[in-house]
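Re: folding output
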Amino acid sequence: MCGACGGGRPVSATTALINQHGVKNTVLVALRAELPRGWALTAQGDTWVLRSATGSQRVYLDIDDLLHELFQRWSIPAPAVLQRSSGL
């Protein structure tokens, strides 16, 4: 559970870390900088949305799923702030 998360729903350790330390915007900016041209990333609450240039989108309910997808698709690693804090 994440004490910093509204509703107290179960979340991953990475999401809890982001919320606890208030680094969501830092993570978002770092990931956006690595995306290929035409792709966009937004975050609302604990939900992350990845949009392609054609308008299709994928919704990720947890940052770990998004990080896995970005690494598999484009070899984008977890942002440094997460690597230092959590060993990702």
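--- second protein (sequence, then structure) ---
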Amino acid sequence: MDIPEPPSSVALSRPGAVIAAIERCMAARLTPDRSGWSAASHLSRDLERHFGVVAPGPAIEAALRVLASRRRVSLRADDDGALWYRLRG
């Protein structure tokens, strides 16, 4: 049984390398008990805690912008200007 190598820190610094993990993480946040809205900092913690993916904040934010441009996530800003993302169903 071959165990794949974990992604390198260089790979995880690229937005494309974390897009699939972010989508899985955001899908897990879509439950009846949760709104599904996430800020990049929340996703960073959830990626590490639940998926074992440690990616730098700028890569997560860039990946979220890519997902928004592809219309895979909805985007809104709160009164403080923080950006929140939600996976589109």
